Amino acid sequence: MAESAIRVLVLEDDRDAAHFMRASLSRLGGMEVDLAGTADEAVAAMRRQRYDVLVTDIRLPGRSGLQALPEFRAIDATVAVLVLTAYPTFDHAVGALREDVDDFLVKPVGAEELVSRVEELADLARRRRAPSRLRVLAVGAHPDDVELGVGATLAAHAAAGDEITTLVLSGGAVGGSTDMRHGEAVSAAALVGARLIHLDFADTHMSPADGLITAVERAVAEVAPDRIYTHGIHDRHQDHRAVHEAVEIGARSVGDLWCFQSPSSTVDFRPNRFVTVDGFVDTKLEMLAAFASQAHRDYMQPDAVRASARYWARFTTAREVEPLETVRVTQTVRVATSVQAPQAVDDPAADAAHGGCG
What we know:
This protein has helices spanning 15-29, 39-48, 65-75, 90-98, 111-129, 145-159, 178-190, 208-223, 238-250, 281-289, 302-312, 348-354, and strands at 7-11, 32-36, 53-56, 80-85, 103-106, 135-140, 163-170, 195-201, 227-231, 256-260, 273-276, 321-328, 343-346. The strands form two sheets. It has an eight-stranded mixed sheet with strand order 8-7-6-9-10-12-11-13, with helices on both faces. Strands 2-1-3-4-5 form a five-stranded parallel sheet, with helices on both faces. It has two domains: 7-129, Response regulator (Rossmann fold, 3-Layer(aba) Sandwich); 135-354, 3-Layer(aba) Sandwich (Rossmann fold). It is of the alpha/beta class. It contains twelve helices and 13 strands.
């Protein structure tokens, strides 16, 4: 879909200057431009219509453009503000900085420069309004690990428009043909629109010191994730523990590091964060079904997977949940509105008793 035309409100009491700006912005920039001669007229216009950019003079009848800025921001905090004045005094410059204006120009301004500045500011306003997207990296030792641990959570991230990358560190040769297992991992990743990075460390012989840390560091540098999901340390499988240790070191710069449950997790796995995945377990089951070579394993069966999600839901008001231990967690966890993105419920008692999974 083509992006809508840039909408601009020009607050200017000089009619000749106002009409010049409207002509320049509409003819050269293809923008939709409204005019206001006073701050009160501009306030009324902003209550009727959302604008990308407000171009305002400072000296106006009644309130100045700077005096009215708090009211403009209260109506629309995302609008980009360009102050355009013939009186570039020190006090005006300081006032503009204090009111957090986005750009400051001195009259006279040529038509092409005006259009260029307004286009840049419109892009800034639209980026402010764009829904935030998380970059998510899920790290597993073998094909099917991340799907078992956080498949439904990844499906929820996908529904929220987040960017997902899965890093699988071995071909899973102990569990079957590496070519087949790679194809299965590709199919599973495609179900949630994830990018797959598939490496070939030796199955059952992984060690953080043998390149795992470097591999994680490279993935983190490439993806720049906001959040990482990976194995917990409380796990009987040596590869899972090795990957956990490698991620703790290789992803030390990432603010959110959360650990999922595996079929080989021990009784010391004590989740302190419970992610609501109502409606996304079906997608998780589709992802697991892609791993046809592992269909004989009990923990891959749909009834076992769904029973686990229902079991952990007892700690929340949700119907289905995926449990996680946290190593690091930022203070703000996004909660979705229109789309059911991964919602995390804390267990403060578990936090106090366990202190994460590291």
